[in-house]
Amino acid sequence: MELTTASLTRFMDYQHQWKTYLTSLFEPHSAMAGAPAASMHGPSAPPANMFDTVPGYEGTVAGGGGGYLPPPMPSVPMPVPEQAPNPPVWHIPSISEDRARQAFSTYVSSKCCYSSAPVREGVITNMESFNTYRYRLETFMESRSTEWSQEPYAGQPVDAGVQPAPGPWQIAAQPPAFFQEHKQTIKVPYTSSVKNCHLCLGMGRNPCTTCAGAGNKVCWVCNGSGYRHSDDRCTHCNGRGRENCSSCSGSGSCQCDTCRGKRQLLVFINLNVKWSIEKDDFLAQDSSGLKVEKLEEVSGKELYKDAQYMVYPVRGFPDASVAQASERLVRDHQVKYAQTSRILQQRQTIELIPITKVNYMWKGKPNVYYVYGNEFKVNADDYPATCCCSVM
């Protein structure tokens, strides 16, 4: 192959760039002295001037972190929520004594240190129903954010500037069924451009981190002396005192991980679409004495369900605290989430959670346990027949 002046010039330019790059990384008194130390592979984050200015995406940064983008105002009037009918008054009667005993027996048998005597010998004196309500509001919404992304350039289409990029909320995305969480990433059209790799400065290779770009390192057998014992030449390094670096095969450099040796990157904007559910619960207070946290573990009988684009607060419910909670949470969701997301559907439910307080006598002393939820879970904090046991 004939060596032309042009090819020689390119070769010399490349060698000069490589030498300058190595000097800037490894010589403490180089022209970069006093600046923050660079890593062995150059700057970790792309420089800001690497990204073009795209109208409508001015706040986009690499790696995301720019926050969710507010949706545009609807071009047509939003549908008015339908006024749901007042929910009926429901009441679930207290469970039977047999059902209470069965739940109590199952609970005690699950405890290794509980005697079953109170279950067999205890006499139920009274059962009280303290049914309570749980109101739940769920908002299913779509959120969008953008970030600059990059990948090694291998001939992919480049379309930046061909025509204006569509806005973040103008790009079509296929949503899942209502109340199913999902994520989707879409490359924004007309934002792809080609840039030199910022990590290797467009060279396709980076200094080897194992040998600091030298291509060799101190022989581990002779510790750099070239000899093993007295005058015995080290056979591992042939007396050189150094051995070729196995990581870079002695070249002093490795393929750039960012551009994978391609020297260039395709830079573009990714649109991240997220469908999520925001949920809030309210438990009406009751006078049973059972801790409210216990009710979070169980389900109840669904009395009321309303799902539409945007729901109205519940009206006329027998428990005024439930109606008040509904009004507050509906308002809070619409104010909080409509600023950064597009609300697609809301759903509100009311459950009646059965609570039965069981009073019983055992060995002449009064005791109490609770049976609650559709699962008939039991709570007996002051069980009268426990023993101290240890696991050997």
Description of the molecule:
This protein has 392 residues and is of the alpha+beta class. It has 5 helices and 14 strands. Strands 2, 3, 4, 9, 10 and 11 form a 6-stranded antiparallel beta sheet that branches. A 4-stranded antiparallel beta sheet has the order 1-12-13-14, covered by helices on one side. Strand 12 and strand 13 form a beta hairpin. It starts with a helix and ends in a 13-residue tail after the last strand. It comes from Cyprinus carpio (Common carp). This is Ssu-2 homolog, related sequence 1.
Task: Write down how many β-strands occur, each being a DSSP E stretch of 2 or more residues.
Answer: 14
Helix percentage: 10-25%
- The SSE order reads HHHEEEEEEEEEHEHEEEE
Compute the CA-based radius of gyration: 36 Å
Q: Spans of 5+ residues with little confidence (pLDDT < 50)?
A: 25-42
> How much of the sequence is in beta strands?
25-35%
Shape estimate = flat
Q: With helices defined by DSSP (H or I, 4 residues minimum), what is the helix count?
A: 5
Structural class, judged by helices and strands? alpha+beta
User: What integer is the average pLDDT?
Assistant: 84
Distance between the termini: 82 Å
Characterize the largest beta sheet: strand count, sense, and whether it forms a barrel: 6 strands, antiparallel
